[in-house]
Amino acid sequence: MIQALRGMKDILNPDNERFIHIINTASRIAERYGYQYIETPLLEETALFKRSVGESSDIVGKEMYQFIDKGGHDVCLRPEGTAGVVRAFIQNKLDKKGGIHRFYYHGPMFRYERPQKGRLREFHQFGCESFGEGSVYEDFTIILMIKDIFDALGIGYTIKINSLGCPECMPGYRENLVQHLHGIQEELCEDCQRRIETNPIRVLDCKVESCQNLLKSSPVIVENLCEACDSDFNTLVKLLEAHSLPFERDPKLVRGLDYYTRTAFEFVSSEIGAQSAIAGGGRYNRLVEFLDGKSTPAVGFALGIERIMELVKMPEVSREGLYLGLMEPEAIETILQLAHQQRQHETVYTEYNKKSLKAHLKAADRLGAKRCAIIGEDELKAGEIWVKDLETKEEKRIAIDQFN
């Protein structure tokens, strides 16, 4: 029997209702904040992610579903959403247009890594990207939007924040960090030893416990910020405090992607074990320029849908829709006509086969229908239909031509 590939799963009932609820809730809130929906391809040129995510990252180095297509092009399934949105932003000349552009998206991402709880090889994200607004107030507003999403979904969280500096202050910090790392290089894991030469900041993101213990005395980014970056970070802290948001400073928070500058943040949950990050993002003011667009400030985030599925508190489900059934085969044409008529304004479930009233009522209840309408022998002769409201339990017979 052919089965789904390892790390790739079907989404079926009841998870499908939870999945759709997350997307609909996040989309509705994003639109309230002025974001518009964008759809980008699942398949992109590999160069897009090498230049944006960074060749030194684990995503590009180890995890991409990359191949040469029949036209000889080096392509891959998207491992994350931001790069594709930035490519679309540039390709559609929005960087030249100026102004502020805000987009939200959702869909599957692909990374070839070891499957674990909340992390699959095909996983789904909801994300937002804001272009053209360089103020730290936009960073804070995005954090507020994520707060609203998680509050609406009934998910508890703590926010971790850090600043990754800018081209003015990062070189000095990088030099101090490299000097420190060379002193403990032999004790670091193989990946960290490689990162010292390719991207030393990523060493701080290592998940190996022995490396984290060695890094406790490493230089801290926020102590090396220039005046502008320091001012933005302090402003963000004050805004979070003023709005009583639960947060903590995390000097080791660098995110897993190379394109971040200044603000970096994560929403974390203690309810999902080691994989505690449920959303994350930050500012990436140089990425549009890196991808050959006009320099444009930008900030964004993504949340992992699979990561939060078990944490979501679903709203109480009320009955809705109509169940149409028959107890006489000759009623089938009438049932089909009524079904088409009612589908113009409500959900309709139809049963084409003759069944007992008890069987119809049981099926309607199982489907969560609000009304059950049946045509039996007596109703067929009288040109009527029997209707029961499954919430109020009220029953009545009405003329078919008056049914609505």
Describe the structure.
- With 404 residues, the chain is of the alpha+beta class.
- It is built from 15 helices and 16 strands.
- The strands form 3 sheets. An 8-stranded mixed β-sheet has the order 1-5-6-11-10-9-7-8. The chain has a 5-stranded mixed β-sheet with strand order 13-12-14-15-16, with helices on both faces.
- Helix 1 runs antiparallel to helix 6 and helix 6 runs parallel beside helix 10.
Topology diagram in text:
Blueprint: H1 15-32, E1 36-37, E2 43-45, H2 46-54, H3 58-63, E3 66-68, E4 74-77, H4 82-91, H5 94-97, E5 101-110, E6 122-131, H6 136-153, E7 158-163, H7 170-184, H8 190-198, H9 209-214, H10 227-242, E8 247-249, E9 261-268, E10 277-283, H11 287-290, E11 298-304, H12 305-308, E12 322-326, H13 332-342, E13 348-354, H14 357-367, E14 371-375, H15 377-382, E15 384-389, E16 395-399
Parallel strand pairs: 1-5, 7-8, 12-13, 12-14
Antiparallel strand pairs: 2-4, 3-4, 5-6, 6-11, 7-9, 9-10, 10-11, 14-15, 15-16
